[in-house]
Write a structure and sequence with these properties.
Blueprint: H1 17-21, E1 28-35, E2 41-47, E3 52-56, H2 59-68, E4 72-75
Parallel strand pairs: 1-4
Antiparallel strand pairs: 1-2, 2-3
Amino acid sequence: MENNQTSKPGAFTPLADDAFLSLGAQQIAYIKSVDLPDGAHAVAIFSADGKPMAAAPSIEVAEALLRQHDLEPALVH
């Protein structure tokens, strides 16, 4: 259903799919503990859109790496 009305100031306008997917991409990265195939433990770092970026030996190191690159870490359980 098309809406041909002009939007009023302050009215809710849904984000386009592409805009929603990029939301937070330049500000947030996610970190998650993972077990590697060889049994070792690591912390994986993912961009806001879910793409793998890096790995670190601990959560503290992952957080420090992200903050050095002006990203806010978010822990995923």
